[in-house]
TrEMBL record:
This is SGNH hydrolase-type esterase domain-containing protein. It comes from Sphingomonas sanxanigenens DSM 19645 = NX02.
Length: 134
């Protein structure tokens, strides 16, 4: 597996725990509970190069033009060979994330295809981890 970073909100945290429990070597995780895209943009960029960056954002953002603009800024700042976006359960936010992924030719995994406890978080992060590395 390439060196990878999982970046984002609580979904990134849960996914990171599952990936690191199931796969060796695992991924570095830079994630924070309730992190918005604006908050993530304020974080210091990783000093390390990652072959793959997995991004879970949008669940803590209001849909609209500002979200789309912030997602585009976030994506422009990711220096990597491969980006995988985890689309939020909320459809307006998922649409915004997907539009950025399509623009850059990135891979998406739609969380809506996985069971959820609360329509925000997946019921099984292990399922997400396995989908990432299929």
């Amino acid at each position: 597996m390439l060196e990878c970073l999982i970046l984002g909100d609580s979904i990134a945290r849960g996914t990171g725990r599952a990936v690191n429990a199931l796969y060796d070597p695992g991924c570095d995780v830079q994630a924070e509970q309730s992190a918005s895209t604006e908050r993530i943009l304020a974080w210091q960029k990783p000093a390390k190069y990652y072959g793959t960056i997995i991004v879970a954002v949008g669940s803590n953002d209001a849909a609209g033009r500002r979200l789309s603009d912030r997602l585009a800024r976030l994506r422009r700042g990711l220096a990597t060979r491969k980006v995988v976006w985890l689309l939020p359960y909320a459809r307006p936010q998922a649409y915004a994330v997907r539009s950025i992924a399509v623009r850059y030719g990135d891979r998406v995994i739609d969380l809506a295809t996985f069971r959820s406890r609360d329509r925000v978080h997946p019921a099984s992060y292990g399922d997400i981890a396995n989908a990432l590395f299929e």
